[in-house]
Amino acid sequence: MKLPALFLLLFLALLTSDAYGSLLGPAVLVADPALVFLAWISLADRWPRILAVVFGLSVYRLTGSVATPLEVMAPLLVVVLVIRVIRMGISPFDRWRRLGIVTLALLTAGNLSQWLVASHLSRGFQGFFADGLLALIVAAVLFPLLDLTRPLLKSARYPQ
Amino acid sequence: MKPLQSAYWAVGCWLVLTLVAYGLDPLFRSGRHNSMEKRYVDQIVQDFEIQKTESYAALTRQQLIDRWLPLANNYELVPASLTPVTDRSPTRSSALLDRGVESGLRSGLGVVSESGIVGRIVDSGDGWSRVQLADDAGFVTPFVDEDGSRGILSGSLFPQVARLKMRLDPMTFSLDERLFTDGSGGIFPAGVYLGAVVEPRTPIQNSKILLPLTLGLAQEVIVFLPIKTGSSR
Question: What b/e readout covers A81-104, taking b as 16+ CB neighbours within 10 angstroms?
Fold first, then answer.
């Protein structure tokens, strides 16, 4: 396993999440670059590496935060599970279909996260669709960049 | 270009885009002085800032205690310095105090500044405490308005903004209505300023309440430590 390269990409994803977090505002619940990276790994990679990313993200977010373990872990697990379930029926190697899968997973995780933190702060249908659009845009920007880095993760199976 | 080269280029571009977001351009503008000059100037500025901060902190602590003492009949007041930090969970809002269990601080205690509410301690250690700021989405506190009506206020997903979580009556806010703690819950005494309604809306839950503007800034704060029954202050 190419773990150093994997953790380098995870570090970059966390750095991006930190840098663009204030710019994204509440939409970071669904368009968090670190979650997008986890979604990309979950699409076509192997379970040990997916679990390594979940572990890395969880440890980073749980130390130095007021967030509870449930609130940190639940969205990560939801992203992984939703993607792994949908990819059984829809090809994760198609460039357009995978964006649909990831957007759905991010929306589910983001809404679960909001429900866990503060269920009374829902932003209605408009907010839901705006979040979906933003998640799609962030995934569409990050995925080509992540696809270019795939030679660093030699054992991964990504679209050619 | 070979695939591996492309990969390294992609990582490099990604890193650059991230650093751009951090706004590092002031670093590139420096460099007109040599390193000795810069070190000398930095030393002088640091010494001056340390002296100023120490005298200012002592003054502010005494002023803070004088300000909150009349309200805090059943509380011991513990002064501390608050340092803003970026919470690692992107939707949460927290800060650190320079005092912890050695001063009797523990989870659940209320923190205020000169301007009003700051938050609540959620974790403590030796020489540090982590504070959940009042604009954190998970922060909740009971309030009373200027007419004596009660309700429950919560933080939000936006900095320095709070939302109404629950209120039975009346179901409207007026503009610039000020909200205070009602003393229930044993975390804050009654009369601590929470915020003002800057955008009254219908339904009332959508109203925007602006918390004290100094909420997440580095500042001197007071922690309310409840006095145990039977002990003297």
Answer: ebbbebbeeeebeeeeebbebbbe
The tokens describing B46, both together, are 């640091």
Are B87 and A145 an interchain contact pair (Cβ–Cβ within 8 Å)? no
Do the Cβ atoms of B136 and A66 come within 8 Å?
yes
* pLDDT digit string, tens, across residues A103-155: 999 999 998 998 888 887 777 778 888 888 999 999 999 999 998 888 888 75
B66: exposed, middle or buried (Cβ count in 10 Å: 0-12, 13-18, 19+):
exposed
Can you give the pLDDT at residue A72?
93
Stated length of chain A? 160
Q: How far apart are CA B183 and CA B189, in angstroms?
A: 4
Suggest the residue from B11, B15, B91 to mutate for an interface test with chain A (most A CBs closer than 10 A): B91
Whether residue A117 lies within 8 A of chain B, CB to CB, comes out as yes
**Average pLDDT in the B206-223 region?**
88
pTM of the model: 0.81
Q: Is B132 helix (H, G, I), strand (E, B) or coil?
A: strand
Q: Is the pLDDT of residue A156 over 80?
A: no
Number of H helices and E strands in chain B, helices first, is 3, 12
E strand map for chain B? 75-84, 94-97, 110-113, 116-125, 128-133, 140-145, 150-155, 161-166, 178-181, 193-199, 208-210, 219-226
* pLDDT tens for each residue of B115-170: 899 999 999 999 999 999 999 988 999 999 888 889 999 998 888 899 988 887 78
Using a CB-CB cut-off of 8 Å, the residues of chain A touching B205 are 120
> Hey, how many other C-beta atoms are within 10 angstroms of the C-beta on B44?
10
Using a CB-CB distance cutoff of 8 angstroms, which residues of chain B are in contact with residue A20?
Answer: 18, 21
pLDDT of residue B58: 67
| 8 Å CB contact between B120 and B137 | no
> CB–CB of A65 and B89 under 8 A?
yes
A13 closest CA partner among A152, A83, A31:
A31
